Every structure is written in C-alpha cells, then in structure tokens.
Amino acid sequence: MTQALAVQLTEFGGPEVMKRVSFELPPPGSGDVQIRQTAIGFNYLDVYQRTGRYPLPTPTGLGHEAAGVVEAVGPDVGDLRVGDRVVYMNAGIGAYADRRNVPAAKLVKLPDGMADDVAAALFFKAMTAQYLVKTTYRVRAGDIVVVHAAAGGVGQILSAWAKALGATVIGTAGSPAKCEIARAAGCDIAIDYSTPDWVARVIDASGGKKAHVVYDSVGRSTFDGSLDIAAPFGYVVVYGAASGPIPPFDIDLLNRKGCLFLTRPSVFPHNATVDLLRANARDVFDAYEKGLIRAQIGARFGLQDIERAHIAAESRSTTGAIVITP
C-alpha cells in the first residue's frame, strides 16, 4: 500500500470544514490506474459543494480535476502505462489529494507541449468553454457574444475562443481592473457590471445591437440584464451562479423579451462517454497549441493551504485560474 494525503469533508460549511487526512491507498483495481498528482485544478463548483449548495453524501472528498503521472496500472488497462502524463476533470470527487486511484477511461494523455500546472489550470475550464462555443451555441463569425465574468478562469478562455471563431466579444466584469484583464484576454469591449447602467452600456457598445448569445456564470445579479441584452431569438446560457441562484420567474418572460432560448448546461453530460471526452480534449489541446486559448494562472496554493484558496475564490480577490500543488 501507498501512503496518501487527501482533503475530506464530514460536514458542510466554511473553509474550516475541510480536513486533511492520511490513509493507505490500495493498489489500483481492474480498469484503474494510480496517479501521483502534480497539480490540482480549482473550480468554483468546489465552493458550492463545500458549502452544501450542491450537497454531496458525507464523508466526501472535494475537487474535480488534476494532472499527474501514472505510477501503477491495474488489470484490464490497455492504453496507459507507468510514466504517462495524464489529466482528468470528471473521475469522481476527490481531486484534492496527492495520490489517488482513477478509472483509466476518465483520463486523457497530456500532449508534450502542455505543462502539468497549465493542464490543471486549463482543462476543466477549457472543456467548459469548448462545449459552450461548439455545442450549446455554435459561435460563428459575425456573432455578437457577451461573456459575463470575463476576467475569471472560464471567462478568459471563453472570450478568447469566441474571438478566435470570429465573434465580436463583449465581456463584463466586476471592476475596472478586471475589465482590463477581460480586454487582455480577447474581449473587444469590457463593461463593469457593478455599475447601474451596465445593460445600456453593453447595448451601446455593439452599436445598438443585442447579443446572439449571452454566457452567464454569475447568476442572480446579472440574469435579468442578460435577458435584456439578448437579441430576439437569442440564447441566454446560464452555466453558473457565482452571485447566487436565479429566483423562480414566469417563463412567459422569455417570450416578452424576444422569444429567447434559455438553457442551463453542464460540462459533464457533454463529456459523458470516453469517445466524447477524448474528442473534446483533442479540440482543447489543438486550440491551446494554436494559441487560440491560454492558461492564466492567477494564484497558487499548497494542499496544506486549501482553506486560503477557497477564501480567495469566494472573496473574488483573484483573477484567472487557481492551481493547488500537492
């Protein structure tokens, strides 16, 4: 057996409920491999699950994505070997660990040109951006695209990818400094959504035209405005709720706002099979290698400082991706 360290929850609450536990990690079983993790990705979903907004059965680990090196291979694994560098984003809760056993079918081999910390910072977020611009709404040249929270980890990648597909990208962010980051990430225009007139400013920025698609990961504080800035028959794509859940509303409002399409997608169903996962991953790696998207690491924390990582994320004091090192 191998000694491992992981974060565990026995209750929901603030960052202090996360406890580090040492345990004996058994050899990988059939179809599994054992990974020594070198970089762990943070996603705001981790906060939702820690606080109980998206409750998990306890006790539970936390974390969805990490990169690392295969150290042992279980029976019936044919496509991975000891020493392979891999990344995952949906191998079961528990990425906050220095070692773990993972189903081989959930792993993707890393290309030589992508460092482990870049993979941990990029993979989940880029796989999210990938389905948003390629499947939920297929962004085309000439589209007007609005990206809320454009200075965040997903927002920067999403903005850059939409721009590379030929769209005019209007980003929103919560401060002038974050608007600068959004512009640097690829937004043609960035608007501070903490100002009371942000809806009018977004519409003015596109010459009075409204958006073909609005990507909203903020939720409660931006949703009404998202409906107002979407063009008739446009799409409002809610894929997160950083400011809180959207209150119930009369669905006829979508008709009154211009026969809008509203959807609440998730990355996991879009990568539910091995073939989908690996095809979409190839698309992400190709976009990275071509320079269409990039990783922006905003902060790094050790696994021993995991509480600080969550505090920084919840206070919105960071921009770009948070990477946790075991």
Q: List the total number of helices.
A: 9
Overall geometry: globular
Specify the oligomeric state: single chain
Estimated structural class = alpha/beta
Largest sheet: 7 strands, mixed
Mean pLDDT across residues: 95
Q: Can you write the helix and strand succession as a string?
A: EEEHEEEEHEHEHEHEHEHEHEHE
CATH secondary-structure class of the largest domain: Alpha Beta
Number of domains: 2
Q: What is the CATH architecture annotation of the largest domain?
A: Alpha-Beta Complex
Show unreliable segments.
Answer: none
**Strand element count:** 15
Helix amount, in percent?
A: 25-40%
Domain Enoyl reductase (ER): 13-324
Protein name: Quinone oxidoreductase
Cofactor: Zn(2+)
InterPro entries: ADH-like_C, ADH-like_N, ADH_Zn_CS, ER, GroES-like_sf, NAD(P)-bd_dom_sf, QOR-like
